[in-house]
Design brief:
By secondary structure, the chain is mostly helical. The chain is built from 13 helices and no strands. Helix 3 crosses helix 7 and helix 3 runs parallel beside helix 8.
Length: 297
């Protein structure tokens, strides 16, 4: 009896400890998510309250799926994600390999790579908009020294989106570098010593030692990078604002504009739900592909 009362007391104490988290989660996560989904089934494309609007079912979803602006923004999101993922995975791995080698000032260089990761993306956007300014920016000033005109990095419809994706990738590079670096330092030194005895070069070590050991880490990073690539509103807002025109407007920026600039809350909700379903499907497909690859290897 005494043991049962002690277990009950421990259970009560445990529930009391997690109660603040559950309350915060319900208020700031669960309720907004459920409310946002519900709004998509009503005609709340104005300042009217939800209770004063009419139920329209899937009408908002049909409107979104027929919208050219949504599919344009959807394509921009895919392009942004592909460039962002490719940049982070390739350069994150290569920089980690280089920083794993001993050289003078290695600690300072590692610190420099970490600084952008903890810097606000809007602040980074302000700095890069100055650096890449076509007329007054120091980057294009270098081009003018050689008698040529530099490109409109963030003002060109063709370049704004790729440049924004690369800058966003650069800002997030530190996480991939640090994670790969930690995995590299776990590789047994005996493997390198045997490779040196066998006369293996840098690229052979990279292919036959480093990559096999880092494959689980790289898959984990690819999953995280894939998810983060769609969380791109801050980068677009800080660098291009979706412009010039709509050439760099991604789905997250479209949702923000529809909800807070045009007050089309139901349409914005439908856009968000559709894009979330797409992200879930992509993540599931990637997880399945990863499981099949690991089973074969």
């Amino acid at each position: 009896m005494k043991r049962r009362s002690m277990k009950n007391a421990e259970a009560v104490a445990g529930y009391l400890l997690i109660a603040p988290f559950l309350v915060m989660f319900a208020v700031f996560k669960l309720y907004p998510m459920l409310y946002g989904i519900a709004v998509g089934f009503w005609d709340r494309n104005s300042e009217m309250k939800l209770l004063d609007t009419t139920f329209v079912g899937f009408e908002n979803y049909v409107t979104v799926l027929k919208s050219a602006s949504f599919w344009e923004a959807f394509g921009h999101s895919i392009v942004f994600s592909v460039i962002y993922i490719a940049f982070l995975m390739v350069f994150g791995f290569l920089v980690a390999v280089l920083l794993n080698r001993k050289f003078w000032g290695r600690t300072a260089v590692r610190t420099c790579f970490y600084i952008p990761y903890v810097t606000n993306m809007i602040a980074i956007g302000i700095v890069f908009k100055y650096l890449l300014n076509p007329m007054r920016g120091p980057v294009n000033a270098v081009f003018r020294l050689f008698g040529t005109t530099g490109p409109g990095w963030l003002s060109s419809p063709a370049m704004a989106l790729p440049v924004a994706a690369v800058i966003a990738g650069w800002a997030a590079l530190a996480f991939n570098v640090i994670t790969c670096l930690a995995a590299l330092q776990d590789i047994p030194k005996d493997m390198y010593e045997v490779a040196d005895i066998e006369g293996a070069g840098f690229w052979q070590k990279l292919r036959y030692i480093v990559l096999p050991y880092l494959t689980p880490t790289l898959f984990m990073l690819l999953t995280i990078t894939l998810i983060n690539s769609f969380r791109n509103y801050t980068a677009i807002a800080g660098l291009t604002g979706g412009g010039p025109g709509t050439s760099s407007k991604v789905v997250s920026a479209l949702i923000y504009d529809d909800a807070f600039n045009f007050l089309a809350f139901s349409r914005a909700s439908a856009e968000g739900v559709i894009f979330t379903i797409f992200i879930i499907i992509v993540n599931r497909l990637f997880t399945k592909a990863r499981s099949v690859w690991e089973a074969r290897n």
